[in-house]
UniProtKB/TrEMBL annotation:
GO BP terms in the entry: galactose catabolic process via UDP-galactose, Leloir pathway; glucose metabolic process
Example GO molecular function: carbohydrate binding
EC number: 5.1.3.3
Active site: H170 (proton donor), E303 (proton acceptor)
Name the UniProt record assigns to this protein: Aldose 1-epimerase
Pathway info: Carbohydrate metabolism; hexose metabolism
Enzyme class: isomerase
Chain positions recorded as beta-D-galactose binding sites: N69, R70, H170, T171, Y172, D237
A Pfam family annotated for this UniProt entry: Aldose_epim
Alphabetical UniProt keywords: Carbohydrate metabolism, Isomerase
InterPro entries in the cross-refs: Aldose_1-epimerase, Aldose_1/G6P_1-epimerase, Gal_mutarotase_sf_dom, Galactose_mutarotase-like, GH-type_carb-bd
Catalytic activity: alpha-D-glucose = beta-D-glucose
Parts forming coiled coils: none
Length: 338
């Protein structure tokens, strides 16, 4: 409903606590225990919704869409019609345009308490909204499925025209704590991907599917994120092809992230084909929760997604959803200590 106000909702199962807003489906805080059982807030964000509303947040915690990541020069052709999107990132269109799904108020459909608390949001995108074709109804549900597991299910149904749909969750994690004063460079990552989709100078994929072996992109075994980050310019901002993770309940393991100091571990599972591994390269001097200052590499994003610019790349898995079809994307964030 257009008259709903942006507000915060709590999911709390006694062990894990998540604060989430109906504005952009933003996760503003996420508390999980460390090796001593001490709760820490492991995501970057703000205490109030004001900074999100006035555009100070570099996509902290939100769901991005209708199409996440970059579309070359904001153009694509579908069923003979050329579509033009707002250009908001160099020469390209990023994360759904000027007012993407991260900058709108979603309707709260259901908010359940109990052992498996959950919240479901719904949004209706109009035909032509931010340049995209067709009316689209979108739903997102966050659920605490166990003491230390958060799941997110995103669905979208085109109502009258085929349209590209590619939703992604854009939380910046720092498992040492958002206010630890340290970057994520000492975290280790294992990414279950033997390939990336390399990009040109404007961060648009060249169309190649390139092996990571013997390159700084190789995270096939657990590696400190900072080890070879300086060999690739500002840092990682690349789509990994999730082609080697074990499977569980229809999901593939995408990444294992670990902070050696707190011993917190995050395993992320998904049914998406790719994951943008983004090391917060453009974050600079953001004053966040409790006055914590977030700089470059203060957090890492693990954005499971369809491949960037798929709509212009015939060899990438299609992100177009036909009328009568349905988009579905599941993610499971499994926290632990080791
Ligand atoms: C493609 O465009 C044609 C002509 O405008 C239209 O008749 C047809 O229904 C469209 N196809 C889909 C799948 O929307
Ligand atoms: C990483 O760990 C080393 C060794 O414990 C420490 O000296 C350094 O300050 C840490 N760096 C960051 C960015 O946390």
């Amino acid at each position: 409903m257009a008259d709903q106000k942006p507000q915060l909702f709590e999911l709390n199962n006694g062990t894990m606590k998540v604060m989430v807003s109906n504005y952009g489906c933003i996760i503003t805080s996420l508390f999980v225990p460390d090796k001593d059982g001490k709760l820490g807030d492991v995501v970057l964000g703000f205490d109030t919704l004001e900074p999100y509303l006035n555009g100070s947040a570099p996509y902290f915690g939100c769901i991005v869409g209708r199409v996440a990541n970059r579309i070359k020069e904001g153009k694509f052709t579908l069923n003979g019609t050329e579509y033009s999107l707002p250009i908001n990132n160099g020469p390209n269109s990023l994360h759904g345009g000027l007012k993407g799904f991260d900058k709108v108020v979603w309707e709260v459909v259901e908010h359940k308490q109990g052992d498996n608390p959950s919240i479901t949001f719904k949004y209706h995108a109009r035909d032509g909204e931010e340049g995209y074709p067709g009316d689209l109804s979108v739903k997102a549900t966050y659920t605490l499925t166990s003491k230390t597991t958060l799941s997110l299910t995103m669905e979208a149904t085109p109502e009258n025209k085929p349209t590209p749909v590619n939703l992604a969750q854009h939380t910046y994690f720092n498992l040492a704590g958002h206010n630890s004063g340290t970057t994520i460079l000492n975290h280790t990552a294992q990414i279950f991907a033997n390939h990336i989709t390399p990009v040109d100078e404007t961060l648009i994929p060249t169309g190649e599917i390139k092996p990571v072996a013997q390159t700084p992109f190789d995270f096939t075994t657990e590696k400190r994120i900072g080890t070879s980050i300086n060999e690739i310019g500002l840092g990682y901002d690349h789509n990994y092809v999730l082609d080697s993770g074990e499977e569980k309940l229809g999901l593939k393991r995408a990444v294992k992230l670990k902070d050696p100091v707190s011993s917190r571990v995050l395993n992320l599972w998904t049914d998406a084909p790719g994951m943008q591994f983004y090391t917060g390269n453009y974050v600079s001097g953001v004053v966040g929760k409790g006055g914590a200052v977030y700089g470059k590499h203060s957090g890492v994003c693990l954005e499971t997604q369809g491949f960037p610019d798929s709509v212009n790349k015939e060899n990438f898995p299609s992100v177009v959803v036909q009328t009568g079809g349905k988009y579905r994307h599941r993610m499971v964030y499994e926290f632990s200590v080791e």
